[in-house]
Sequence to fold (295 residues):
Amino acid sequence: MARSKLFASMILVVGVCMFAGASVAKAVTKCQFNGNYSFYFWDPDVGLSGVGYFGVRANPATKCRSGILLPGGIINCNFEGGEIYEDYIEDGTVNLETDGEGTMEIETNSSRGICGTGKDALELDISVVLSGKTVLFNSNGAAKVVSGTTPNAGSNYAITGRADKCFAGSISGSYDMRFWNPNANVIGDCLITLGAGKVTGGTCQCNNDGTESISEIESGAYTLGEDCQSSTGYLWFWASSNKICGYDSYLALDFAVAQGGSEIMGICDTAEYILGNTKEPNTGFSLPCAFEGWL
Fold:
């Protein structure tokens, strides 16, 4: 009887240990920095602004302090005067310190290079904040990226910007947006009402080097992309009563959706005309800007 109880106890202990071992084996560190991010950036000194998205896969074995960029991301660069460049992200690396500060290396492959620099790599100094939801960044001015041999596009342009976790969903409501172009001494804010792919109203207030103006938004439209690109889109509207910031009655925006749809951020599209329509001049052609807006 005693031997029977002892054997049963041993079986129970072994079973518990095996269960515990299985539980430990299944425990996987979840890296908060993993995922797809939409971003925008600008360098007002040269009339440069841009948007895009990138995907990150951090390595749990390094306590999520290193990782790679996934192929398929995009960098769109717009210059004052309508010059536009688009590059696809093919590779890259991420390295973080324990405080969330670190570097990101972005690698592309095109004949013109990132933002027309002829260089296919860009090194950023980054800060990962809000539990991985947001990344603040600026370009590193080093001649070579972290690999030590590849020319760095960040040595050509001093860009700064922000990235947020992608939001794949529809947007609607009224967004209060502030925008700026320090190089042209223009600042302002717009209240833009969106829904079902249309701009239905709002206002734009502008301070252009001391000259105040208010424009009534009459109508417009917006589109969103697919998958992670559903966080990025194109929006245009036209205003009456006064030209927007004294330039033109139409304005096009390249935007990214953040914070679960409650925030829109991006840049003024610098194409000369709205959606290629040669009859409707775009204010963004004369006024490259960056903006942030909240629902």
